[in-house]
Design goal:
214 residues; single chain; mainly alpha
């Protein structure tokens, strides 16, 4: 098997009991998004594939906020696959710099491959799937759907974002609706626009139903 095939097997096994919004199917969707975006970009496709497959191998949300676990697990796995140090370092850099983290996180590394995988991951936080994942995670954390008395908090620090326990609907304003303007690639921007509009329609319907108007 190729290194990509081995990585798929590894990730499937590692995430078999993961929360539904961060499980293998999330990885698979991001992988497909990344391949679509990469088809219109000049990039190292192997790095894109490995970055997409390993980007959430140990999400800090499920590791007591420890952001070092994912990069460490990815590095150790890639060493077993005899990947070069150049490849390992690039993939680890993607994992360390891909996250939203409140929207104020300054990336310490840039590459076309990171831009592609980041767009692919952000697309999975938008549209119908993004809505489903958001409410799934809110339920997982036992958060209220919505509370009109609790306003969204914009421009949060990374720590504030990580520790937020606000109602699920606030997440749309604190992250999801901000992603459209943070996309890197032309393909990503185009797809994000479509999914963004879908979420706006959803919110309009949600508020109308909440207020008993429809």
């Amino acid at each position: 098997m190729s290194i990509i095939d081995h990585t798929i097997v590894f990730v499937k096994e590692k995430l078999q009991n993961a929360e539904a919004g961060h499980d293998w199917f999330h990885i698979e969707r991001v992988y497909k998004n990344a391949l679509l975006i990469a088809s219109n970009e000049d990039c190292d496709l192997t790095i894109v594939k490995l970055g997409a497959l390993l980007h959430d191998i140990a999400d800090s949300k499920f590791n007591d906020g420890d952001e070092t676990v994912g990069p460490k697990v990815a590095r150790e796995f890639l060493i077993t696959q005899n990947a070069s140090e150049e490849v390992i370092t690039h993939v680890v850099n993607i994992i360390e710099n891909i996250s939203f983290k409140g929207g104020n996180f300054e990336k310490k590394f840039t590459s076309k491959e990171l831009e592609i995988v980041q767009d692919a991951d952000r697309l999975d936080a938008l549209g119908a799937i993004g809505i489903a994942r958001t409410f799934n995670y809110g339920g997982f954390k036992n958060r209220p759907l919505y509370n009109p008395a609790i306003a969204p908090v914009l421009n949060m620090t990374k720590e504030e974002y990580k520790n937020s326990e606000s109602p699920t609907l606030n997440h749309f304003y604190e992250k999801l609706l901000l992603l459209k303007d943070k996309m890197n690639t032309e393909t990503g921007k185009k797809l994000a626009q479509q999914r963004h509009q879908f979420m706006e329609h959803f919110l309009s319907q949600f508020y109308a139903e909440w207020d008993g108007e429809v």
